[in-house]
Every structure is written in C-alpha cells, then in structure tokens.
Design a protein that fits this description.
The complex is a heterodimer of chains A (762) and B (176).
Chain A: H1 2-8, H2 32-39, H3 55-59, H4 78-82, H5 93-116, H6 129-141, H7 152-177, H8 203-220, H9 226-240, H10 243-246, H11 253-266, H12 283-287, H13 305-318, H14 326-336, H15 344-354, H16 367-379, H17 381-389, H18 394-411, H19 415-446, E1 453-454, E2 457-458, H20 461-483, H21 492-533, H22 537-591, H23 608-615, H24 630-640, H25 647-678, H26 693-721, H27 729-732, E3 733-738, E4 749-754
Antiparallel strand pairs in A: 1-2, 3-4
Chain B: E1 2-6, H1 14-22, H2 31-40, E2 45-50, E3 59-70, E4 74-84, H3 93-107, E5 112-118, H4 122-129, E6 134-139, E7 149-155
Parallel strand pairs in B: 4-5
Antiparallel strand pairs in B: 1-2, 2-3, 3-4, 5-7, 6-7
Classes of the chains: A mainly alpha (762), B alpha+beta (176).
C-alpha cells in the first residue's frame, strides 16, 4: 500500500540500537523538522483508508495541536503548576485544618457530580493533585503510601479520606465492569491510567484507618473539626457499600447512616472551606495518559443530598431481598426504575444483587426454581407442573430462564436502553414462544387425562405465559416510545391502535388462563357435591381424601392465581381503554382535518407505507400476534372516521364511547389502587406490589391523571372544533403530543393548539 | 446565487469545510474524522457556494456523508455533518444540500439514510423530519455535551423495514 510505504520512510535516524528511545533528555533527538519534511510526501488522499478505521475510531480520535482535542495544550495557572504534595498548605494549624476540610469536602461533593450528574473522573475526583499523587505512588509500591509533609492532618487524615473515596470508586469500577450499565453513557470511569487500589483487598484496613483519623480529629477538641469528622463518617459509609455486592448484604444500616450524615452535611453550608489554591486543576489531563478531549472542571454545588438519593435508591434495590414470591420480585423490578431513572449505582447493583455470581436468584433459588415459580405463580401448579417436569422441557426452560434474566437486567437500564432492551427481547420471546408451544403441544398430546383440554382445544399454560410476556414486551416497547418522544403526532394513531390490538390479544390469552384456573377451582368444589351424593362408603372416603388433598394443596394457589390473573386483566383493560380513547380522539381530530396519520413531510424519497413499516420493524418478524398490515391500519382508521351525514350525532357517539372507556379505566385504576393499599391478602386482586407500593400507586395515579385529561380533552376538542366540519378549521389548529401535569408519559394528550402560535410540535 | 457542487476533485476545500463545521458542532472532531469521510466518500460531500460573494470560491455550506453496507445486509447512507454559515441560514441551503446528498445515495443503491441529532436541536429535527425521516430511538447522553440524541432514519426501500437478521445478504443468500 502507498500509505504503508510512505509511513515506512518515516524512520528516525536518532533512535537507539534496540529501537527504544533513551529516556535521558540529553539523548533525545529533535525530529520536528525531519517529521514535517517527511510528512510533506504524504498524500492526504491515502490517509484514513484503512478498513479497520471506522467512524467510531474517527470520532474518538484525538489530534495533536488542536486545542479542542489535545490535552497537552491545557494551560495551568502558576499555582497549579507549582503545587506540591510534599508541603502542608496553610500557615497555622487552623488554616491547615480548613484546607484539609476543604479538600475532603470538595472530593465528597465531586463524587456526587461524578455519579449523580454524570461527570467524568478527571474533571472531578481525579482533578485533585493529592488523589493523583497518592494513587501514583501507592500503585508503584502496591501498598497504601502516605504524604510526608510533617503535618498529621495531611499525612494521615487527608490520605485516609482519599483512600476511602478511592476504595468506594473501586467498588463503582467493579459495578461498571460487570457490564450492566454503559461506560460513558451511564457512568464515566476514565481512570487516566491510574490503578484504583486493585492491590487493596481489605475493606477493614481502609475503615480502620478512617476511624483512627476520626479519633484523631476528635482528640483535637476543636469546634472547627466537626465538619471534617462528619465527612469522614460519610466516607466510612461509602466504603461499606461494597458489602451489598461482596457478601450480598441486605442490611441497610450503613445506608441509613449515609443518609443521616449527608443530611447533616447538607445543612452545614456555613462550614464550607476553600481548598488550597492550585490543589484542583485540569493538570491530570495534561500530565497523564488521556484518551479524551480536554474538559473543564466542574464546579461542585452544595450537593450532599445527592448521597441521600443514591442511598435511598440502593435501599429500594435491596428491598428485593424481602420478596416473598417471584411475583413480588418481578413487580419490584418492573416498578423500581419505571417512573424515575434510579441512581446509576443502584441500577448497576440491582441485577448483580438479584442474580448472584453462582446464578442463584437472591441466593435462594436456582434458575430452574426461578422460572418454575414464575410459571406456577402465573398459571398454577396444577396446570403447569406436569409440563414443567417433563424432560423435554428442560432446554426450553433453560432458554426461558436466560430470557427472564435478561428481562430483569433490562429493568435496571437507563430510560433509553430500556426500550432498546425490549426491542432485542422481542425476538427472544418470539423464538421461545414457538419452541415452547411445540414442546408443550407434544407433551399435552401424550397426556392421557383431560387436564389440558379446554373448550377451545389443548391448553398450554407455559406457552400462555411466554405469549403474555412477549405481548407485554411489545406493548411496553410501543408505549415507551411516547415517553421518549420518539413519535410525531401523525404516528399516534398507528401506535395507539397497535397498542390497543396487542392489549386485546393479551386479554384473550389471560381470559383463557383465567377460565382454566376457574374450572379447576370449580372442579374441586364439585367434588364436595359428589361426596354428598356418594352412597358407597368406601368411595365416599376416597373422595373425601381426594377433596381434602386438593383443598390443602391446590386450592390456595389456584385462588391466588385467579386473583393475580384478575389483576393482570384489569391492568390490561386500563391500557386497552386508554389506547382506544387516544385512537378515538385521533379519529375525531382527523375527521375535522386537523391531523392526519400520513406524514406532512416531503414524499420525494419515501412514502407512508415505508414509514409505517419502518416504525413497526421490531415486530416485522413476530409470528403471533401477527403484524397488522398498512391496509389494516388504514381501514381501521377509516372505519372510525366521522363522516356525513349526521356528523353531530356520530361525534356524540364517539365522545360517549371515549367517556365510557375512560370510566372503565378509572374504575379499574381505583380497584387496583385499593388492592395495592390493602395488600395481597386482603383484596380482590393479587398485585405483588408490597415492596414497591409507593411507586406502583404513583404509576396508577399517573394513569388516573391521563384518563381524566383525556376526558377533559373531549370537552376541549368539541369546544374548539364545534360539532360540524368547516374547511377553515384545519388552518386554525394543529395537534401536538403533550403530557399533562402528573399524568403518564405513556399516554400523552393529543392537544389542539393554535397553528399560528405553535407551528412546531414538541 | 447559491451553487451546489460535490466535493469530488475539490479536496482543496478541506480546511474551509473543517472551519465551517468546527464553528457549529458541539462535538470536537479531529482531522481524522474529516479525512475519513472526505477521502473515502468525496462524492458524498456537497458544498454550497455563493456565486455573488467576494469569496465565491469559499463554501458557505456543506453536507458530509458516507454509505456502507450495514451488517452485511443493507446499504445504509449516513449523514455525518451538515453546516451552513450563520449569515446564510434560513434560505433553504441546508435542505438543498441534504436533498442532493440523499439523491446521490439513493442513486447509489442505499436502502435507507441514517443520522443522529441532538434531542434539543429542533431546527435539525424539523429539517430532517420534513424530508421524511422518522425518529427510531433515543440515545441517552449520546454527546460529549451530555445531551441525548435521536437516531433518525429515512427508508428508501423495503429492505429498510426488515430486521437485519431476516434479510438476505447482498448476494441474495439467506443465512437463516
């Protein structure tokens, strides 16, 4: 290649015999002129044509002499340049105390900037000269090294605090390396080539030294030491956090202490001390290996409440340890990160705490137990046990377990990745569904009893569960798009219609399972009647024993299943009703010409069919439920349009239907909320939300607000549009998707706005 | 009058293009990014010139693109950068540049055109969405400035609407 040939000419005449450059400055050869001279022969056209160099490489590449990309060009102040870690800053004891307090305070607040505000390590914690110095020196010796300024506050207290902070950072690094959250996106761990205490295994060592420093500060008996003492106590709590991963501790004592210390520090704004000038700088980006463009330091706000958020979110994760059933675990996973994105440490911890290193769930259940429980909690032991225990099912259940683990992991992802995770899962659930159905059908066909026969044919409980999970994933993927503002108003019809269609499919599946459970319950009850009628004493005794056995072993779980299925049906009915309301409001707006389901964009390159098919691409390969065609969407909307004659009465009918659906949704929401409040042992429904009661209630409150907003929107639409069509209306109004206060982001409102004032949507 | 030309045989404009784009983009791009696009796909970079300006040979706008086989299955055009000098904005120059680039990529057999843009960049979103692009996904904290991005796609053929896994490869052989 020309390029290689040209690079080949770029050799150094001054290099040493073994090819390495001597580190002594006097032996270095100035090649600047030679370099530029040889560079003249390079042809620009031959550069960057290597197939291995892609756009990712390009956008991550740095450039010498480009001030935006070359961190060696960073200019430091003279104080930053001259800053030495060998000297204790501060002329008096009090000044030195203030400086050390200031440094530790900044480092603590930088942790919040780093983790809560997604900043980088070099612009926060690593911008501290002491952190850089101590990590460098310690890693050379592979043991904790200390400053030697002659002042104990620096040489001991500051060092102990820094090692505590770095030990916590090491824990965060471990979470990141586990691959649950994404580097740069969720968390930046640009360590600048520094080793974050990989040689320190012993948490106790760090804690003991922190405690000795706390004792030392206490011994100073100075009122100015209070703030620093609390800072050190806060760091102790941070060091202890690794126990939730190391020994899977669900004990929240240290988290409660962390909250307490953070609240105390938050209130001590008046104790703020400045760190010594030059102590924090961009210097590390200039001095050490830097793969990123130069970035200015963050100015830390008074952000101690950030630790409270982290601790509370970790506590929410640890609640899963109290799950009394897989349903409760799954509901915790569903709700804990649903409405508000949780702290990155909590999100990273969740799957690792839930699925342990040995692949045991919460340390209690094997993967098989886990999937078995999921299945039986959905469709009862009596309906699924025979199938589950069949050897043919083992590989299928193994696959189900893998997908379920992925499902749990996805729940902790950031809000955007969450939707993408479902996109990937759709294929997995669909493949599993086909596999499960085939296997289960085979097993059911071989069964002699009437166990699995229903009015509509063979009942396949495990496949029903997979189908339910698949359709739930599809609905979640569709509606999450509204939350992320992925759809334009013209797409609202298709997405809500599809969500309605999926909810309908889901409802049919759940009704079938519900029916089977109910028939099981009824058959046990009918056994009681048979006993009464039975004249033969021996047969009567046998029947009584059978009845007792079924009542003792099956009835309770069947009743629980029934109540859980009732909850799922009721939840599904809310989604179905609200989706239908949105569809109907869209149809009214389209009938009046203020919105269309066709794009208003130029069609020179594409068309509406392609746009819809692209939008539905994630579902294009799904076997069941079958993807609706472009024509099916068109026909559905056409059927709903309000046309002449008798527009007014047709409009009234549509509005009535919306009100009825809203009313259905509100009734279902109220029932579910009552049952969440009453608990699973005291209500009509089993919701499994005991551990996430607050979040679940908030979720349903938001749906309630959406339903109310849709109802109100009926009145707004009719007030603005009137009850008869007019050609000028379409010029007056436009439609945007808006989220009313406290309403669900999954069901934005089709809001009519004045087109002259608001031409741009969103 | 605004004149549009492809970059091909006009590599002398490299520095002007870099200046034009560096002035606006939030992401600092190295020389290698420009070289990557311009050296490999010079025919997919289009420049706009003001023939009535005193510096009529200096581009006042540009779009920089590439096209590649995506996962071995689909030809994907990609709009990497688009910039118009601030005093020339609001005259439809960006739209014309993008249109020219898409036309070229379409002719070259692309199944779809893809790009990313900041969620907050309403002007860019309007421009692309008015040309038929739709938002496929949102990407959390995608840019160095910590902003989210939307990935936008304009489907040109039916192949754009099928999951890559289920597409025949470009030679017509289905691996499934």
């Amino acid at each position: 290649m020309d390029l290689e040939k040209e690079f080949g000419n770029l050799h150094l005449s001054g290099s040493t015999k073994d090819g390495l450059i001597d580190e002594k400055l006097s032996d270095l050869v100035d090649i600047t002129e030679l370099f530029f001279d040889l560079g003249k022969d390079l042809s620009p056209q031959t550069i960057i044509q290597d197939p291995g160099f892609n756009s990712f490489e390009g956008t991550h590449s740095l450039e010498v002499n480009n001030p935006k990309l070359d961190s060696s060009l960073i200019s430091l102040t003279s104080e930053e340049e001259r800053f030495s870690c060998d000297v204790a800053c501060g002329a008096t004891d009090v000044e030195r105390l203030m400086y050390v307090t200031g440094i530790v305070d900044w480092l603590a607040r930088f942790l919040v900037c780093w983790l809560n505000e997604y900043q980088t390590l070099p612009t926060t914690v690593l911008s501290c000269r002491y952190v850089e110095f101590l990590l460098t020196v310690s890693s050379e010796r592979e043991e904790l090294s200390y400053l030697r300024t002659g002042d104990r506050l620096y040489d001991q207290v500051l060092c102990d605090a820094i090692y505590g902070i770095c030990y916590f950072a090491k824990f965060v690094q471990k979470l990141l390396k586990a691959g649950v959250v994404f580097e740069e996106e969720d968390l930046n761990f640009n360590h600048m080539g520094l080793d974050f205490l990989s040689y320190v295994e012993d948490q106790e060592l760090i804690l003991t030294r922190l405690h000795r420093s706390i004792d030392y500060i206490e011994s100073l008996q100075s009122p100015e030491t209070g703030f620093l003492q609390h800072l050190l106590k806060l760091i102790c709590c941070l060091v202890s956090l690794e126990n939730h991963l190391k020994v899977y501790s669900a004990d929240t004592t240290e988290l409660d202490n962390l909250i307490e210390e953070a609240i105390y520090l938050e209130q001590q704004r008046s104790s703020e001390c400045d760190p010594p000038p030059g102590c924090f700088s961009m210097g590390i980006q200039k001095r050490l290996s830097n793969q990123f463009p130069p970035k200015h330091l963050v100015v830390p706000t008074w952000n101690y409440k950030g630790f409270v958020i982290m601790a509370q979110d970790i506590k929410a994760v640890l609640m899963v340890d109290k799950a009394a059933s897989m349903l409760e675990a799954a509901q915790l996973a569903s709700f804990f990160n649903k409405l508000t994105q949780r702290h990155v440490v909590a999100r990273a911890l969740f799957p690792l705490f839930f699925i342990r290193d040995d692949e045991r769930v919460l340390g209690r259940y094997s993967g098989f137990d886990c999937i078995n429980l999921h299945l039986t909690e959905f469709c009862a032991t009596t309906t699924a046990s025979t199938t589950i225990l069949s050897p043919e099912m083992t590989p299928v259940l193994q696959e189900a377990m893998n997908i379920m683990f992925e499902w749990y992991q996805n729940m902790a992802q950031n809000t955007s990745r969450y939707r993408q995770g479902y996109n990937r899962q759709l294929l997995l659930w669909d493949a599993l569904h086909a596999q499960m159905e085939s296997c289960e059908y085979e097993i059911a066909s071989q069964a002699t009893g009437e166990e699995s026969i229903t009015k509509t044919g063979i009942f396949m409980p495990c496949s029903s569960w997979v189908f339910f999970m698949k359709v739930t994933a599809m609905i979640e993927y569709v509606l999450k798009g509204f939350d992320l503002e992925v759809y334009k108003p013209f797409e609202a019809f298709a997405m809500f219609w599809y969500s309605y269609y999926l909810s309908y499919q889901q409802e049919s599946c759940l009704e079938k399972v519900h029916e089977v459970i109910e028939s099981k319950i009824n058959s046990i009850h009918s056994l009681g009647k048979k006993i009464k009628k039975q004249k033969n004493a021996q047969k009567k005794t046998e029947l009584k024993a059978q009845y007792r056995h079924l009542m003792d072993n099956n009835m309770e779980s069947l009743r629980t299943n029934k109540r859980y299925l009732s909850y799922l049906l009721m939840h599904g009915s809310i989604i179905k009703s609200l989706s239908l309301c949105e569809v109907l409001q869209f149809s009214i707006l389209k009938s009046f010409g203020v919105i269309d389901n066709k794009t208003s964009a130029s069609k020179i390159f594409s068309n509406d069919r392609l746009l819809l098919e692209l939008r539905l691409k994630p579902f294009s390969s799904i076997g069941v439920p079958e993807l609706l065609t472009y024509e099916a969407f068109e026909s559905a909307l056409n059927d709903l349009l309000i046309t002449e004659p008798m527009i007014s009465s047709k409009l009234e009918k549509t509005l009535d239907r919306i009100s009825k659906e809203v009313s259905n949704a509100l009734t279902a929401i109220d029932t579910i909320k009552k049952c969440i409040n009453a608990g699973d042992n005291n209500g009509l429904l089993v919701t499994g939300t005991r551990l996430v009661k607050e979040q679940a209630l908030k979720y349903y409150d938001q749906l309630h607000a959406s339903a109310k907003a849709i109802e109100l929107n009926n009145a707004v639409i009719t007030a603005k549009l009137g009850r008869s069509k007019s050609s000028s209306i379409s010029d007056k109004f436009t439609v945007r998707l808006s989220i009313p206060n406290d309403a669900s982001r999954f069901f934005p409102l089709l809001e009519l706005t004045n087109s002259t004032k608001n031409k741009r949507v969103r | 009058m605004i004149i549009y030309q492809p970059l091909i045989n006009n590599l002398s404009h490299f520095q002007s293009l870099k200046r034009l784009i560096d002035a606006d983009l939030s992401e600092p791009y190295s020389v290698y990014v420009y070289r990557y696009f311009l050296n490999r796909w010079p025919e997919l970079t289009f420049l706009a010139f003001d023939s009535e300006s005193e510096t009529s040979d200096e581009p006042i706008g540009c779009v920089i693109c590439k096209s590649e086989l995506h996962r071995g299955r689909r030809m994907r055009g990609y709009i990497g950068m688009l910039a118009v000098q601030s005093d020339y904005r609001g005259r439809g120059i960006a739209k014309s540049l993008v249109k020219k680039a898409i036309e070229k990529m379409h002719q070259d057999g692309c199944d779809e055109i893809m790009l990313e843009t900041e969620v907050e960049n309403v002007a860019a979103l309007n421009l692309y969405e008015n040309m038929g692009f739709i938002r496929m996904k949102r990407m959390f904290r995608y840019y160095l400035n910590e902003g989210d991005a939307f990935k936008l796609i304009l489907p040109l053929t039916q192949r754009s609407c099928v999951r890559t896994t289920f597409l025949d490869d470009v030679n017509g052989i289905d691996i499934l």
